[in-house]
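Hey team,

Filing this mostly as a record. A colleague (T.K.) asked me to run one chain through the structure pipeline before their review meeting, and I want the input and output archived in the tracker in case anyone asks later how it was produced. No errors, nothing strange. Just documentation.

Input sequence:
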Amino acid sequence: MAFVTGFDFLPGDPLLRAAVLSGLFIAALTACLLVAILAVRLHAASRTAREAALQRRWLPLLLAAQDDAATDLPVLRRGERKAVLVLWIHLCELVRGRARDRFRALGLRLGLDAVARRLFSQSALRDRLIGIAALGRLGCNDCWGELAETVRQADPVLSFVAMRVLLQLDPRRAAPLLMTEMTRRSDWPMRSIVAAVAEVDPSLLAADLTTALRMARDDQLPRLLAVAEMAPGDEVAALLLPLLDAKQPPEILIGALKATREGRAGEMVRALAGHEDWRVRVQVAAALGRFGRVEDVDRLVGLLSDAQWWVRYRAAQALAGMTAVPTERLQALCAALADVYAKEILTQALAESALRRLA
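Output structure:
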């Protein structure tokens, strides 16, 4: 009896042999790919199970320990350190005030500062981000120099997270670096910058913001003005007045109007009600809603007939929010409007205002 050895089972025709070999190769490759996918899924499932078990073990311990400093805590095992640090960061993000201070003390007690420093020195981006975030929550001021250097690095995510941590550690000390970097870099989203500033006392940034506003170029002003919205102070308010000139670019006018909180800028704001850019008119209506007077009612009524819906809506909101104007007068004014769109938007704003008062 003859036995098949080697590739004797393959057909003799070269084309058929090549086709069979190609089919076998593809089948083997597909089998290897399926095995690899299965291995990845099993690994992910195993990791998820480990993380869930770690959370079940450590979450009650961390919550109990921050309420009672005398609570005994187990020693962190080597394989648990990074996961516990991430869990601790998440808990810190959920609390404010004294509760956050207690979590900071708990983190130091567990030795999480050493874990954070080690992760900060790693090359992997995720590890570095975790380390930086933890250093801020732990109040590790001794890492200031390394964090400041990280702020100047090219990576936008890494640099911004480091900047946010510096603001958490010492807002006044971090302010000059923030002003320099936020005007230099366009890869930091303004929404993220504003959120980071909102976490600290904005008045601590006022002096450096004033200096930056005086020295800024026109293309840098809109980013600084977004922060000026939250920074109180007469000096900042005084610097906004020249920026409300109708000759300024729309982006600067929009930023200055958003940041204006005082009635002394009222005349300059009112003069912009007929600006050709509808985005400016939107902010005029919003500004008059913040500090407008009874005599601004007619101007806001005029904006109710604007061609742009957002201008009409902000004007209606401004009117509905004017505490100096009785609701009955506003309702009568609304009923007398000849413009259908103006009447519709003011009716909506009055209804929204009434619902807010009832809530």
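Quick notes for T.K.: The chain is about 70% helix and 0% strand. The first helix runs from residue 14 to 67.
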